[in-house]
Amino acid sequence: MDETGHVSNNDQISQATKNEQNKGKGSDESQRKKAVRRKSQGAKENQCVQKIKRKRESLQTTGNISDHYRKKKRAVTKQNEFYSMSKRPCGYCLIINNYNFEGPSLKNRKGTDKDKDNLTRVFENMFFEVEVRADLRASDMQNVIKEFAERDHSQMDAFVCCILSHGEKGSVLGIDGKQVPICELTQPFAECRTLASKPKLFFIQACQGNKAQQGVWMADGQESTTEDETFEDTYIPALHSVPLKADFLIGMATVEQYQSFRHIKDGSIYIQELCKQLEIGCPQKKDMHSILTRVNRAVSSQTIQRSKQMPEVRYTLTKILVLPMKQMHLLKKNIHI
Questions:
Q1: Catalytic residue among 153, 166, 192, 275
Q2: What pLDDT score was predicted for residue 171?
Q3: Class of domain 91-334
Q4: H helix intervals, 161-300
């Protein structure tokens, strides 16, 4: 500033420079603080991202292990849930068909050959080795059961026994009218070592009731000596008197205290429906529980001479049973879907 009080140009320039420097310093300081804040904020964000990544990686790793474990578990479970049915022949199928009975009180079982023929066809098509034994006395039935129980089943996957006969309480009858307790038919196979852990199936066509009816349908029980009477008046609570061990299935034609019906030409409604549903269900890979449920529904829905019939199944199977069937070489006229 000169003596007159005016500011010189140099002083003005110097002051402007200082102001610019101070302004620049303030700006630099502000930028520095902003940079520090951004850096701090970035570090925090980076820490959050790292935490999220670690969490995601942890979850992903656990998920991969879990997914791998579940897939492995499903494969093992599926293998262990089903009975193996790969061997050929699949097993023996014994059919005991009692037709000609001795004595006036036991009439011949007309129509039973139809059951025998259909069972033979169906189980042969299911890769079983079928053997039919006809008109056996009580002692012969026990002997043939013992014979099959003592066979070597190690190269087979299952065993089937179908019994077509008259019946009384807890028993089926030989043609001589003598009783064979059902437990004596199943127990030898429970003790068969080569059938251990393999399914053992019994299908029994026999009456369990004591109500008489007239007509072409006949009860599978001891019949009255009167020519006009078709049904017997004894019952066979068979299922509840048979002790079972593992891997058994017993299918009865009817529930306790009721009759099962057999047509004198077309065979019994239970065996005929069983064969039909096996021919339908096995090619579709249906399990036996599903097939026999269909049998129950089909038989129980019918009305025969103002009467009903309800089959019954009892089983101690420990796995799902799917029986094999040769693919659709069967005559379609024998299958009515």
A1: 166
A2: 82
A3: alpha beta
A4: 182-190, 269-281, 288-300
Exposed, middle or buried by CB within 10 Å (0-12, 13-18, 19+), for 178? middle
Backbone torsions φ then ψ of 244, nearest 5 degrees: -115, 145
* First CA to last CA distance, the chain: 120
For 244-283, write each residue's pLDDT tens digit.
Answer: 689 999 998 877 667 777 889 999 999 999 999 999 999 9
Tell me what percent of the residues of the chain surpass a pLDDT of 70. 61
DSSP class of residue 197? T
- The reply to whether 153 belongs to the active site is no
Task: Evaluate the CA torsion angle 132, 136, 138, 140 in order and state its sign.
Answer: negative
**Helix orientation angle between 182-190 and 138-149, rounded to the nearest 10 degrees:** 10
Sign of the Cα pseudo-torsion (288, 294, 297, 298, in order): negative
DSSP assignment of 59-118 = HHHHHHHHHHHHHHHHHHHHHHHB----SSS-EEEEEEE-----STTS---TTHHHHHHH
Give the closest residue to 185 by CA, choosing from 169, 201, 198: 201
- Whether omega before 181 lies within 30 degrees of 0, making that bond cis, reads no
pLDDT, position 316? 94
Residue 143 is which amino acid? Answer: N
Is the pTM here over 0.85, yes or no? no
CA-nearest of 161, 133, 115, 102 to 264 is: 115
**Residue keyed to tokens 């019918």:** 302
| pLDDT at residue 224, as a whole number | 41
Catalytic residue (one of 207, 263, 275, 282): 207
**Strands (E) located in the chain:** 91-97, 128-134, 158-164, 167-168, 171-173, 179-181, 200-205, 217-219, 248-252, 261-263, 267-268, 312-315
Exposure class string for 307-330: b at 16+ Cβ within 10 A, else e: bebebbbebebeeebbbbbeeeeb
pLDDT-derived band of residue 196, with 50, 70 and 90 as boundaries?
A: very high
Lowest mean pLDDT among 149-163, 245-259, 292-306: 245-259
